[in-house]
Amino acid sequence: MVFKALVVDIDGTITNHDRTLDLRVAKKFRELRVPVILSTGNPLCYVHAVARLIGISGMVIAENGGVVSTGFDSPSIIADGMEECEEAYELLSRYFDLEKLDAAYRKTEVVLRRGMDVTQLRRIVEDNGMDVEVIDTGYAVHIKDGKINKGTGLHTVAGLMGIQASDFLAIGDSCNDAQMMREAGLGIAVGNADDEARQAASMITEASFGEGALEAIEYALSNDLLE
Ligand SMILES: O=C(O)COP(=O)(O)O
Ligand SMILES: [Mg+2]
Questions:
Q1: Is 131 an active-site residue?
Q2: In which residues is substrate bound (predicted)?
Q3: Which of 12, 20, 81, 160 is buried deepest, with most CB atoms within 10 A?
């Protein structure tokens, strides 16, 4: 099997521990012959800037699949569900001192600074029958629509490209990458990945962060899985 494209997470996968971009990965992306699609929990403007500066496709997955961009200067596909996320945020704010992140840029999720006990947040939204999911990526806490994730985003992107989700090699590090790694033809987790990402992946690199992403790409190239 030769994969037709690569879908890669940003934070913790192509960055160093402090969220700075690993420049060796950026260089490697430019050398690959297949398209590289970024897939992230960050808002669209953030991932578009990253993609532009690396020099790869403007077709990206943002907000954990809530926003799929068809290109730098073309429309985005934006999921519903923000209202429910805001309602959950209002409810949770009665119990916790919460700080929203990137609120001005977000279209489908409410994102919070980490530091609280996420299991308590989950229990409260569950007890109130709210149709939202609360996840902690290790970088931020996301209140999101449970039906949307990077896996559904990958299917949308694959459709736009005229290929299948299984034509992708996926690389990630966190729980928000799990569905994407399962839907892809092969999911590789970097060495620093959390338990959920490790379980979803078919392979885990020895190296962590950007070094791990490089190891995954080198593995694919040397086994004729990628061109
Ligand atoms: O937005 C987050 O919490 C993490 O971002 P990522 O999906 O690029 O790792
Ligand atoms: Mg990540």
A1: no
A2: 150
A3: 12
